[in-house]
Amino acid sequence: MKSYSILTILSFLFTVIVSIDFPVFMSGSVKSVDVMEEVPAFVVLIQFTTSTITASFLVNSANIAIFNNLAKIDAVLDAESISDYYKRSRRETYAFIFVLLLLHLINIIIELVTAEQITLHALFVLPLYYIQKLEIAVFCKYMLMVKRRLVLINDHLKVFVQEQEKKNKTIFCVSKSVLNSKEKIEINFIGRAADDNTKIRDLAAMYDVIGRICSMINEVFNFQIFMTLVSTFTYVVITIWLSLYYYRTPASHSGELINTAIWCFSAIYTVGAMSFACERLLLARNETRVQVNKIIMNYDLPNPMRVQAKAFMELVEAWSLRIYIYDLYSVDITLMLKFISVATTYLIVIIQISHFV
């Protein structure tokens, strides 16, 4: 399998390099704007090469460990007994692939329509962008699988908290919505409050497994996320530079500018999807903290169960479930705000420099 990966990398690199017109580049007749347009493609080519080597030789065991731990969580929480649990996940995966293919197909059609000249090199480079988006789609799917398990833990905690709140009510009331008995059995994991009930400890252990899974996901996708941000930032800067260049050029290059801008927006959407997937996991973690805190503050519960909840809270504080880019930036909704802020700064700088060129 590893030799197959190396063969795939070498064959694709050879195809891309052969498609480059080196005599034209060596003659010095190539415009600077044409060179700038090819920079993002080579950044993505570097990402493809390095990520393939990394996935084949360095993080293969981590990927296996991620799925083994997910299977362990499902076994403890008895996820198979929940109707449509895996079917929803499968439909979600199909939706990811369909949307990814559709968006990439739209980008290719716009590329072929707006491009002034279609070269063999451009056709070979197009699959690189699909591979880049596919890597981020896989990362988002990983995060959603983790989030689904954490939501299942939250459901167990909610059912237990609601049962205890009903017992503490002194006024008789009729509920407007009654849970289906089958659904109630499916998510009733903790059971009755008792001194020998250790189910909260089991849920805390599963949260610890989720924390270790997030750490392994961070290890696997660290470089891919970093290179995605680099290529997206490169696209933004080049789009700004090309816009100013074509604005000052008498000839009309609206097709090339539209094409570059669309690829730039698609790259930004990729970063946005990545940030949104991580943000949803953080929101689920906040819900876990709220439910565990309710158990801690319920002094009517047996003391051993409250002690288990306090240990659970310490685990929640220890595992932030955040994805970091080489311990520099956290991948969440604030990453998009920081990215927009930096892009705006470079827009101002490039506009100022263009007045002196």
Automatic annotation (TrEMBL):
Keyword annotations: Cell membrane, Membrane, Receptor, Transducer, Transmembrane, Transmembrane helix
Transmembrane segments annotated in the record for this chain: 7-27, 39-59, 94-114, 120-140, 225-248, 260-283, 335-354
Topology of the protein relative to the lipid bilayer: Multi-pass membrane protein
Location(s) in or outside the cell: Cell membrane
Gene Ontology BP terms: sensory perception of taste; signal transduction
A Pfam family the protein falls into: 7tm_7
Family statement: Belongs to the insect chemoreceptor superfamily. Gustatory receptor (GR) family.
UniProt function note: Gustatory receptor which mediates acceptance or avoidance behavior, depending on its substrates.
Identification of the protein by name: Gustatory receptor
